Protein backbone atom coordinates (compact mmCIF):
# COMPACT_ATOMS: atom_id res chain seq x y z
CA UNK A 1 0.00 0.00 0.00
CA UNK A 2 1.22 3.48 -0.86
CA UNK A 3 2.91 5.18 2.11
CA UNK A 4 0.55 8.14 1.68
CA UNK A 5 -2.22 6.00 3.14
CA UNK A 6 -2.71 4.58 6.62
CA UNK A 7 -4.89 1.73 7.83
CA UNK A 8 -7.57 3.01 10.19
CA UNK A 9 -9.80 -0.04 10.57
CA UNK A 10 -9.80 -3.77 10.03
CA UNK A 11 -12.95 -5.87 10.22
CA UNK A 12 -15.70 -7.68 8.40
CA UNK A 13 -16.70 -6.73 4.89
CA UNK A 14 -20.06 -5.43 6.12
CA UNK A 15 -18.51 -3.21 8.81
CA UNK A 16 -15.88 -1.84 6.43
CA UNK A 17 -18.51 -1.02 3.79
CA UNK A 18 -20.59 0.83 6.42
CA UNK A 19 -17.54 2.86 7.39
CA UNK A 20 -16.69 3.60 3.75
CA UNK A 21 -20.22 4.91 3.30
CA UNK A 22 -19.96 7.02 6.46
CA UNK A 23 -16.64 8.51 5.30
CA UNK A 24 -18.00 9.23 1.82
CA UNK A 25 -20.85 11.20 3.37
CA UNK A 26 -18.26 13.62 4.78
CA UNK A 27 -16.17 13.76 1.62
CA UNK A 28 -13.46 11.22 2.47
CA UNK A 29 -12.69 8.42 0.03
CA UNK A 30 -11.42 5.32 1.78
CA UNK A 31 -9.53 2.50 0.13
CA UNK A 32 -10.50 -1.08 0.95
CA UNK A 33 -7.91 -3.83 0.85
CA UNK A 34 -9.12 -7.43 0.90
CA UNK A 35 -6.23 -9.89 1.22
CA UNK A 36 -8.46 -12.94 0.87
CA UNK A 37 -9.90 -11.68 -2.42
CA UNK A 38 -6.45 -10.77 -3.72
CA UNK A 39 -5.20 -14.23 -2.79
CA UNK A 40 -8.18 -15.92 -4.36
CA UNK A 41 -7.70 -14.05 -7.61
CA UNK A 42 -4.01 -15.00 -7.63
CA UNK A 43 -4.82 -18.65 -6.93
CA UNK A 44 -3.71 -18.72 -3.29
CA UNK A 45 -5.71 -19.30 -0.14
CA UNK A 46 -6.09 -16.73 2.60
CA UNK A 47 -6.32 -17.49 6.34
CA UNK A 48 -9.06 -14.98 7.22
CA UNK A 49 -11.87 -14.71 4.74
CA UNK A 50 -14.11 -11.69 4.80
CA UNK A 51 -11.55 -9.60 6.70
CA UNK A 52 -10.90 -6.23 5.08
CA UNK A 53 -8.70 -3.24 5.85
CA UNK A 54 -9.77 0.37 5.44
CA UNK A 55 -7.14 2.95 4.50
CA UNK A 56 -7.38 6.72 4.18
CA UNK A 57 -4.98 9.33 2.86
CA UNK A 58 -2.62 10.80 5.48
CA UNK A 59 -4.13 14.27 4.92
CA UNK A 60 -7.52 12.94 6.07
CA UNK A 61 -6.41 10.77 9.02
CA UNK A 62 -7.56 13.12 11.79
CA UNK A 63 -10.99 13.77 10.37
CA UNK A 64 -11.52 10.13 9.40
CA UNK A 65 -10.48 8.66 12.75
CA UNK A 66 -12.62 11.17 14.65
CA UNK A 67 -15.69 10.21 12.64
CA UNK A 68 -14.91 6.48 12.80
CA UNK A 69 -14.48 6.58 16.59
CA UNK A 70 -17.74 8.47 16.95
CA UNK A 71 -19.53 5.93 14.80
CA UNK A 72 -17.98 3.01 16.70
CA UNK A 73 -18.98 4.57 20.03
CA UNK A 74 -22.59 4.70 18.85
CA UNK A 75 -22.44 0.89 18.93
CA UNK A 76 -23.33 0.41 15.28
CA UNK A 77 -20.09 -1.46 14.63
CA UNK A 78 -18.03 -3.57 17.00
* Gyration radius, in Å: 13 Å
What ranges have pLDDT less than 50 throughout 5 or more consecutive residues? none
Quote the beta fraction: 15-25%
Biggest sheet strand line-up: 1-3-2
Portion of residues within helices: 40-55%
What's the number of helices? 3
Q: How many angstroms does the end-to-end distance come to?
A: 25 Å
Number of strands: 3
> Main β-sheet, in a few words?
3 strands, antiparallel
| SSE arrangement, N to C | EHEHEH
Sum up the overall morphology in one term.
globular
Mean pLDDT: 82
Computed structural class: alpha+beta
Summarize the structure.
The chain has 78 residues and is of the alpha+beta class. The protein is 42% helix and 23% strand. The longest helix has 13 residues, at 61-73.
What does this entry look like structurally?
By secondary structure, this protein is an alpha+beta fold. 42% of the residues lie in helices and 23% in strands. The protein is built from three helices and three strands, in the order βαβαβα. The chain has a three-stranded antiparallel beta sheet. The longest helix has 13 residues, at 61-73. The two termini are 25 Å apart.
